[in-house]
Structures are given as C-alpha cells and as structure tokens.
Write a structure and sequence with these properties.
mainly beta, Immunoglobulin-like, 40 strands
C-alpha cells in the first residue's frame, strides 16, 4: 500500500533490548559524563627561602625581640654543600615569632658568613643586628665588634664546627642570649677585614650562587646575628598596626571568581576567625589593618565561585610591629609638687622592648620622657604646681617610636586632704539619715550644721583604703529648717593639711504619719 510504514521486526526487537541497558548504565555511572564544576581548590603561599653559607657551621632559631624561642634548622653538612641544601628552607614563622636568629660557627682559619634571607643579602638587610655584648659577661668573650658565645655550648668543638656537625640546642642559645646587647649589622662599606659594619668580597664561603659578600668573624668561635622578619618580604608580612597577606591562586581546578581573607589573634581558637575582605579574583594581595602592634595574628584565604567557598589555605602567622599600644587603668596619687601614676602596662611591647615611658600635662601638645628612665608602674610625674589641676597622659616608647597615648587621669598635686562625693540620704526631721564623704587620705571627719557639731558625727574614723576612703555618720535632724553641712577632715598623716567642705543647702522634710 502506498505510503505504508514498514517495520523491521529485528531492529524493533534490538531497540527494546538496548534501551534498558542504556538506562541502567546511566543510572550506575557506566557511561562517561562531563566533569562537574566545583568550588575552587585552596590558595597557597609563596615560599620564602633561607640560603646561607658559613665557613664552617650554623644553626637557625626563630624568636621574638627578647630572644630565641624555637630551633628552626640545625645544619649538619659541611660548608661546601650548604648552598644547595639550604635553598629549600621555607621561612614560615609561628605565633609570636618576629625575629630569626643565626648562630654562625667557625672551625679554624678564615671564618666567613654570607647568603640570602628570602632573596635579601644578609649584609644589607634592614634592621640586621649582631650580638656585641652581654651583662653579665659570664662565659662570653668580647672580641669587638662581636661577643663570642661558644662558652655557653657544652662540648663545643672547633673540629665539629669544621665538619659542619656542631649542634646548638635551644636551651644553650637562650642561655647565651640572656643579657645580650645588640649592634647594627647593616653594612656601611667594604674593606679587607670584613668585620661589621664593613663586609668583604674575598671570601671562602660565599661566591656563586651567592653574592660574594660576607662577614668575617673570629676564628674558632660562635657569634649570633638576628634579623627582623618584617624586613624579609615574607608572603605574610607585618607592618605598623597592619599585616600584608600575599597569596597565590590555586594551581589547578575550577578558577575562583573571588577570595575570602580571614584573620584572628593567634592565641584565639579557630572559631574566632573573622573576614577582613572579599577581593575579586584579580586581586591576590591585601593589607589587614587596625591590628595591635606586638600581637601575633593568624591568616588564611579561601577561593569562591558560583558553586560556593573552597577549602582554606594553610595558615600563616605574622606580628605587626611598631610603637607600643597605650597603657591603661591610670590612677593618680597627689604628692608634694608631683603626682604618682599607677598604670597597667600596654598589652604588648609593639614587637620591640619598651625602653621608657613619657608623660604629658597639656593634653598631648608636648611630651617629656621620664628621667631617669622608668619602665614600670608606678611612675612619678615631677615639677607640678601644688593645688593646680592636671590631666596626665602616658605613653610607652620603643625602638620603633612613641606609642599610643593613654586616656587622661586627673590629679591636683600637693599634700592636701581632699573631700569629695558628699551625699546625704533624704533628710527628714526626727528620722536618721546617713551622711557620707570620700577623701584621699585616712583620718577623722567632723560634721556640723547650723554652726554646731552634729551629735554622733564628731571625729568619725574613715574606712577603706586609697583610692576608696570614706567616712559615714548617722544624723537625726532636730528641725526641718534648711541648712548646709560643713565637714572638717583631719588626716592621720600629719604631713597632710586638714581640709573643710561645705555642702549645698539641704532641704529637710517634715516627718509624716504617726509617731
């Protein structure tokens, strides 16, 4: 028949046999499908390498401004192969670490030390210092411009140092660095001796692949250099009240369209991580601001795209360094022509030891450093005029600058008894009412009204101690006539003068109800 459809029964049968198999294959994943898009992989941080060579041996420690806190690397190879073995070391500071300490050791002959910290030559790295003195000297030996510290390493052997196998423990390094004084180890020139601050270029240790510049140090000795991590250009780098975080995009996987940069104080739990910024994918560096100098912070970064937030990077820590935070909780005590100020130390030293405090008596327009130096509470502000009111400010000083100012505390200098905070519960004729005053010095108080001493309120002993000294008596008004109360306080310390206080006029109510 014209137009009729012919059906091949064989093909029809095969079709209905194949379709169920295809459906099963799809159901159980036997057929290949396109890869599903996912959230980004974790970002990473660029390695910051340590590559140094010492003729003959060295050990590396991490720490803070006060000293070494962790053994980072113990060299155990001879100087000829140090360059290739050290190049892979990744400088990754932990919580609270702000300095890297390098103990260099010589085993005889000319002693040289040179190399790079994250690509910066050790002879020119900003902030570099060398141990130059110790108090007390102990087992140290002065050899200007160095102090030799091998005497603090039990069993120190020049032959071990020559072989690159002399170990230095953390405890030995901490003992050696107790009481150490530091001098600049930033090169100012070059000469044949190579002693700080002049490097030399005729070296045993430090030619290619290094710069050829090196420090000389005394033969058969151990000397220590240190470097602030803030000068190394690390991928997470502390500054003044801020930290710059520089990360790498994920090397593979689905690309991020943006990032989440988070931070917390290193001492806090991971639940304390807070988001600082969410930059677009083109940005892989940001500076976290508003941080406290001298406090260690931890950072992490995650990529984001339309499918969500990927895994966070490994964490990195850094400590912003700069002038110290403000001292707090100032309390003043007036003295003759001066004032004693007690305070709570700043929560950190800013990353460098506090060297002094200074004060202002004019709202911060001018500041005066304590002389002699005073770095602990209480401190005495001198040169004040008795009876004049001052608003005192304090701030700490370190090698990085003048710190944040405290809140002000008021003081009137002079050995004068001062009465304040007069209060009287509502006085009513024939009803007892308490009268209370605050004073700055222990003693006895006498209360009068209408020109007469109030019975039971004569020579009332004060209670409490500074700054919370009070005197209270019970008064039963005999009349409803208004009046003012006059208080005379005689101090127990007769070096203070007595003082009087007159209240405002008190309204005395008439008693109501039945007697």
């Amino acid at each position: 028949m014209k137009g009729a459809v012919r059906i091949n029964l064989g093909e029809f049968t095969r079709f209905f046999r194949v379709v169920p198999l295809l459906l099963l294959a799809l159901l159980f994943g036997y057929l290949p499908v396109a890869n599903a898009a996912t959230v980004p992989l974790a970002p990473s941080f660029q390695k910051a390498t340590l590559q140094i060579v010492v003729d003959n041996d060295f050990a590396v420690f991490m720490g803070d401004a006060s000293g070494a806190t962790r053994l980072f690397y113990q060299n155990d190879v001879a100087w000829m192969t140090q360059a290739s073995t050290a190049a892979a070391l990744d400088i990754a500071p932990l919580s609270g670490e702000s300095y890297i300490y390098i103990a260099v050791m010589g085993g005889g002959g000319g002693e040289d030390y040179g190399g790079y910290l994250n690509g910066v030559d050790v002879v020119s790295l900003p902030g570099a210092q060398v141990a130059s003195g110790r108090s007390p000297l102990g087992s140290g030996v002065l050899s200007s411009p160095y102090i030799k510290l091998e005497g603090f390493v039990s069993g120190y052997s020049a032959s071990n140092a020559a072989a690159g196998t002399q170990d230095v423990t953390l405890a030995q390094m901490q003992s050696a660095l107790t009481g150490i004084t530091w001098s600049s180890a930033v090169a100012t020139g070059t000469d044949s001796t190579g002693n700080v601050p002049n490097y030399k270029t005729s070296t045993v240790c430090c030619t290619s692949p290094l710069s050829g510049k090196a420090w000389n140090f005394p033969t058969n000795s151990l000397v220590v250099f240190r470097y602030p991590l803030s000068s190394l250009g690390l991928p997470v780098k502390g500054g003044n009240s801020q930290v710059t975080v520089d990360w790498n995009a994920p090397a593979s996987g689905d690309a991020p369209t943006g990032y989440i940069l988070q931070y917390k104080k290193s001492s806090d739990p991971d639940t304390a991580f807070a988001t600082f910024s969410t930059p677009a994918a083109a940005t892989t560096i940001d500076t976290v601001t508003g941080l406290t100098n001298g406090i260690s912070y931890t950072f992490r970064v995650a990529g984001t795209n339309t499918y969500g937030t990927g895994a966070y990077s490994e964490t990195r820590t850094a400590t912003p360094t700069g002038p110290p935070p403000a001292p707090t909780n100032l309390v003043s005590t007036p003295l003759a022509s001066s004032a004693q100020i007690t305070f709570t130390d700043p929560i950190s030293d800013g990353g460098s030891t506090i060297t002094n405090f200074e004060y202002s008596t004019n709202g911060g327009s001018t500041w005066t450093a304590f002389s002699p130096v005073d770095t602990s509470s209480p401190a005495t502000v001198p040169g004040l005029t008795d009876g004049q009111t001052y608003q005192i400010l304090l701030r700490a000083i370190n090698a990085l600058g003048n710190g944040t100012s405290s809140a002000s505390v008021s003081v009137i200098p002079g050995l004068v008894t001062r009465i304040s905070n007069f209060s009287a519960s509502t006085p009513t004729k024939g009803v007892r009412a308490n009268i209370t005053i605050s004073v700055n010095i222990a003693g006895k108080a006498t209360f009068s009204i209408y020109g007469k001493k109030i019975p039971g309120c004569i020579k009332v002993a004060t209670q409490g101690s500074s700054p919370s000294i009070t005197a209270t008596c019970a008064w039963k008004p005999a009349t409803s006539k208004p009046g003012t109360v006059v208080v005379l306080v005689t101090p127990a310390d007769n070096s203070y003068s007595a003082s009087t206080y007159t209240s405002g006029q008190l309204q005395i109510a008439r008693r109501s109800g039945n007697r």
